[in-house]
What does this fold into?
Amino acid sequence: MAEVVIVESADAAGELAAAAIERLVRTKPDAVLGLATGSTPLTTWRALAARGLDLSRVRGFALDEYVGLPPGHPESYRAVIAREVVEPLGLTPSLVRVPGDEGPLKLAGESYERAILEAGGIDLQVLGIGRTGHIGFNEPGSSLASLTRVKTLAEQTRVDNARFFPSIDDVPMHCITQGLGTILRARHLVLLAFGKAKAGPIAAALEGPVSASTPGSVVQLHPRVTVIVDESAAARLAHADYYRHAWDNRLDWER
Ligand code: PGA
It folds into this structure.
């Protein structure tokens, strides 16, 4: 079962996620992080930056990227990761990969998977969840065993992400994303969600049936998942009282 932590605010969640990353990096300075974009992980990156750790040896693999934006576009995830993660955290740019950043697109999924394996696998993968229930850009219908590949974005996702573009017509139609199988291979998943729009997707992912129709539900198959949600995103969790009870009574070695 996942560890589900219900906190007061996105800032508090960011502190917990940053603490998990700090624990990892203190024991493994060249740890491999799976990097998510979007609004959700911003408090984590901020809290981590404030810790002042030396992260120059950390290696990073972005979860996903748009397909079809011109190189250097400010909303490409390559650019977003550079601006919001690499620079503030002091990561080394050459140690951070984004899917599709090398070679022909057709082969990019395979080469990304190979690069992750060659790095020794992802130690800790930060995840958000979309309103469609996607993790990464794995929209409903994604195989639970899928690896990095090109996908078509759901219209809902394009609508949600239009806030970063002049208009919805500028939001790409396609993306390249780590698959659900890729995500399952990471050693520790940290799934974050805030706000009432995420209450349905989080309840479905954690407490509904495991199904390709609910891509986030794949986390139920993973042995080590930490879910950190605020009260609004936790609103539809049937077992919220138990999660609070388990967290309040966690053992010393879990702290
Ligand atoms: P958000 O996106 O963090 O901007 O809400 C999450 C997602 O789409 O995975």
